[in-house]
Amino acid sequence: MSATEIIAYMESLQNEEQRRILMGFFKTGPGEYGEGDEFLGLKVPQTREVVKLALTIDHEPLTLSEVPELLMSKWHEVRLCGLLILVAKFEKLATKRLVNDEKAIRGRDEILTMYLQYAEQANNWDLVDLSAPKILGHWLLLPTNLTPTQTSPGGGDVKRQVLDELAQSDNLWKQRMSIVCSWKTSQMGDPSWCLRYAEIHLHHPHDLMHKAVGWMLREMGKRCSMDLLRDFLRQHAHKMPRTMLRYAIEKMSEQERQYWMTI
């Protein structure tokens, strides 16, 4: 199944009523964060079904080389389809049996490289949140053959370099990738990525980043250590944006939430 066939099929499913709902929900109006984005009106489960169709053995599965055509589409749902295909391909190469397999390592690095190359096409929060943890976040936990550039801001560590470049970008969605990817690392018991990039983004001006950082801090506390979360709050709660703080403490008791909100 080719990218062109996938796009034509998705266009045939267009739903005008749902399209109008999505364009409002994802803030596509003038001056809003999703300004100019175009929707077909497909729900996420529909897009996931297209992904399954694209990768099924009953057809010739979509090759990695065709994914950029999906990622460059004007249609939000087609870009999501491309990202979810990258997720599926990455996860297939990241099973326990293949963690240290040299061919699988090369394949994962190729997918990660493509993901970063087209990162700006993941230009809304859902596109980032449904892809960054499962590609970028998972890659952080696995062997890689990629090497840092000579000008690496990450101190010679390629994984830190990749995230630092995203975090230091002037693109909101790349910045969101650098923190939301820690959902996976925290889930697997490594709090360091969340803590590093939460601190870097502590004074970010955008509400979408306040929500993302607070969310990731909450998940880190739940998955790794509430004591680490409290340590972070003791250092930073007094200067955190209130939305970020509310998200971070959401699962705490009412009494403890009140304590942190009054610091």
List the helices and strands and how they pair.
Elements: H1 3-12, H2 16-25, H3 44-55, H4 67-71, H5 76-92, H6 102-117, H7 125-129, H8 132-139, H9 158-167, H10 172-180, H11 182-187, H12 192-200, H13 207-223, H14 226-236, H15 242-248, H16 254-261
Helix pairs in contact: 3-5, 5-6, 9-10, 10-13, 12-13, 13-14, 13-15
Class computed from helices, strands and strand pairing: mainly alpha
Hey, roughly how much beta strand do the residues contain? under 5%
Q: Over all CA atoms, what is the radius of gyration?
A: 19 Å
Oligomer: single chain
Main pleated sheet: none
What percent of residues adopt helix (DSSP H or I)? 55-70%
Number of helices: 16
Arithmetic mean of pLDDT: 95
What letter string, H or E per element, gives the SSE order?
HHHHHHHHHHHHHHHH
Contiguous runs where pLDDT drops below 50 for at least 5 residues: none
Straight-line distance between termini: 57 Å
For the secondary structure, the number of strands is 0
- The coarse silhouette is globular
Describe this structure as you would to a colleague.
The chain has 263 residues and is an all-alpha fold. Helices cover 61% and strands 0% of the residues. The protein contains 16 helices and no strands. α13 packs antiparallel against α14. The chain is globular. The relative contact order is 0.08.
Characteristic terms for this protein:
16 helices; about 0% strand; about 260 residues; mainly alpha; single chain; globular
Short overview:
The protein is mainly alpha-helical and 263 residues long.
